[in-house]
Design goal:
The chain is α+β, with helices and mostly antiparallel strands and 249 residues long. It contains 8 helices and 11 strands. The longest helix has 18 residues.
C-alpha cells in the first residue's frame, strides 16, 4: 500500500502503508534519488534517539550517533530508486547498499528527512485582536516530504494534529521526561540528553484526537476511529507534533 494518496487533489499520508518513499535531490538539482523505507515501530526509533543523544562533538560520541542512525536506516531500507550502473542498468540491492555505504552524505539527508517533521508557518498579523476562548483546543502542523510513484513527483504532506488542550500537569510531565547528564571527560564535560520517550508517546496518544492530512486504510483519522490509527502514527510525527504543542502559545 502506497504512503501517498490524494483527496481533493491534495496529498495525504496513508498510515497503513507498507513503505515510505523519501526523495533526496542532489546538490546540483539534476538527480532525484528515492529511498524506500519500511515502517518502524516506535520502540525502534526511540532506541536510536536514546543511544545517539550526545550533544558534544567529541569524536566517539559523534561516531556513536552516526553508527546508530546508519544501522537503523540499513535495517529499514527496502531499495533505492534512481541509480544506475556505468552500464546503464539498475543495480542490485547489494550494489545499492554498497553505494550508500560509500556515500554517507545521503544517509545524513535521509535521516533528516525522516525525523524532521516540523512545520514552519508565517503568522497572519490580521488575525490579531480576536477574542480567545479559555476552552480552545490546540492545532499544530507537521510536514513530511515523500514521493508518489503513481504520479512520479514529490508530495509534501502537511498534517495537522488536533489536541485536547494540554494541562499544566501535561507540561510538567513532558519537561520532566528530559534530563541533561554531565560527565567529566578529559579537561571538559560531556553532555548527554536522557529522555523518556515513552512519556512523550503516552502524552501524544492521550491528548491527540484527530490527525488531519492522514488516513488509515483510506479513512480519515478522526476521534471516532482513533483506536485504528493512533498506533500507526510514525514516532517522528508524534514527537514533532507534541513538541510544537507544548511550546505553542
Amino acid at each position: 500500500m502506497q504512503a501517498v494518496v490524494y483527496y481533493d487533489n491534495k496529498p495525504v499520508l496513508e498510515l497503513g502503508a507498507d513503505e515510505f518513499v523519501f526523495p533526496i535531490l542532489t546538490h546540483d538539482g539534476e538527480h532525484l534519488v528515492l529511498f524506500h523505507l519500511k515502517p518502524c515501530l516506535p520502540a525502534e526509533i526511540k532506541l536510536v534517539y536514546t543511544k545517539a543523544a550526545y550533544s558534544t562533538w567529541t569524536a566517539d560520541a559523534l561516531l556513536r550517533g552516526i553508527d546508530e542512525r546508519e544501522a537503523f536506516l540499513d535495517r529499514h531500507l527496502i531499495k533505492i530508486s534512481g541509480l544506475q550502473t556505468t552500464d546503464g542498468v539498475e543495480p542490485s540491492l547489494d550494489e545499492q547498499r554498497s553505494w550508500l555505504k560509500e556515500n554517507p552524505q545521503f544517509k545524513v539527508a535521509l535521516w533528516e528527512s525522516f525525523v524532521d517533521a516540523k512545520f514552519h508557518e508565517v503568522q497572519d498579523v490580521a488575525k490579531r485582536g480576536t477574542i480567545l476562548s479559555m476552552a480552545y483546543t490546540q492545532k499544530v502542523k507537521s510536514r513530511w516530504c515523500l514521493y508518489c510513484p503513481e504520479r512520479s513527483k514529490e508530495a509534501p504532506i502537511v498534517m495537522t494534529h488536533h489536541f485536547t488542550r494540554l494541562t499544566r500537569e501535561d507540561h510538567d510531565r513532558y519537561w520532566k521526561a528530559f534530563k541533561i547528564i554531565e560527565k567529566a571527560r578529559g579537561n571538559g564535560l560531556q553532555h548527554r540528553l536522557e529522555a523518556d520517550w515513552d512519556v512523550v508517546e503516552q502524552l501524544y496518544d492521550r491528548r491527540v484526537n484527530r490527525l488531519e492530512g492522514a488516513v488509515i486504510d483510506g479513512a480519515p483519522c478522526e476521534e471516532a476511529n482513533k483506536r485504528d490509527w493512533i498506533d500507526c502514527v510514525p514516532f517522528p510525527l508524534k514527537d514533532s507534533g507534541l513538541d510544537a504543542a507544548v511550546q505553542q502559545i
